UniProtKB/TrEMBL annotation:
This is Radical SAM core domain-containing protein. PROSITE patterns: RADICAL_SAM. Gene3D superfamilies: tm_1862 like domain. GO terms for molecular function: catalytic activity; iron-sulfur cluster binding. Signal peptide: none annotated.
Length: 248
């Protein structure tokens, strides 16, 4: 059956409730004294949330919907936060995280500022979440200060046509350019994320995934003399509520 209506059970509860949104990211609370455990956890570093929301609209993605609208912290605010958290924890790595960190509009300036401040203290920077775009092709050249632990990309599918269906408007050419740029700038490990079972997928799309991985590894041989080390995650698609694919 279908739901006919949803009504409040109490008189003082409004019929529709608006989402609470932090409008000014610079003025909201940020944990300045995170616990530093004795054991080494997975995310053993300063985590700086540089923006909230995502400018992209991948049709399977719930994160961009529930984290909307797109908001940014300023470079000055992030620099101040990094300094205070460093003073309180002594961590030697700062992760600039968000849903799509290469879309942060002042990323170059932020990297230069943080690198200038922390390089002498041997504190590295990392970018855990990158979107393949025009900016990314140039990015590795300006992030010499970034730790080369792993260069993470999420092409999601093996072929351009399925990427258009899921509304991830990147093409193979851009993807391989980003992979080449990563090798040229010293990354040894490329982490790739794919999904299978997406609406509109054909067997050809699935077969294209290992081909894409092989080529990404082979490019390492061409550029740096040995095959690239590729770490692959393949997840099954599950339809999420509030996304365009919730009905498929
Ligand atoms: S780029 Fe990532 S976070 Fe943004 S909409 Fe696509 S999958 Fe979601």
């Amino acid at each position: 059956g279908t739901i006919g209506a949803i009504t409040p059970t109490e008189d003082d509860i409004p019929t529709s409730i608006s989402k609470a949104v932090v409008e000014d990211m610079d003025r909201t609370y940020y944990p300045l004294k995170p616990i530093v455990p004795f054991a080494e956890p997975v995310h053993d570093r300063i985590n700086l949330e540089i923006m909230r929301g995502c400018p992209h609209t991948c049709r399977f993605c719930i994160s961009s919907i529930i984290k909307a609208p797109l908001r940014f912290r300023s470079v000055q605010n992030l620099t101040d936060l990094a300094e205070q958290i460093y003073q309180n924890t002594g961590y030697d790595e700062i992760s600039l995280f968000s849903l799509s960190s290469s879309d942060y509009p002042w990323l170059d300036e932020l990297l230069v500022r943080l690198s200038g401040r922390f390089k002498a203290r041997r504190v590295g920077l990392s970018l855990p979440s990158l979107h393949i775009n025009e900016k990314l092709k140039d990015l590795p050249g300006v992030i010499n200060a970034v730790r080369k632990t792993g260069f993470t990309l999420a092409p999601e599918t093996g072929r351009d046509c399925l990427r258009q269906i899921i509304n991830k408007p990147i093409d193979d050419k851009e993807f391989f350019q980003a992979v080449c740029a990563a090798y040229q700038n010293g990354w040894q490990l490329i982490k790739l994320y794919f999904m299978i079972g997406l609406p509109g997928e054909t067997e050809a799309d699935i077969r294209a995934i290992p081909e894409m991985i092989k080529k990404a590894s082979y490019l390492g041989k061409e550029i740096k003399g040995s095959p690239g080390n590729i770490n692959v995650t393949i997840s099954p698609f599950t339809a999420k509520p509030h996304t365009p694919f919730q009905w498929v």
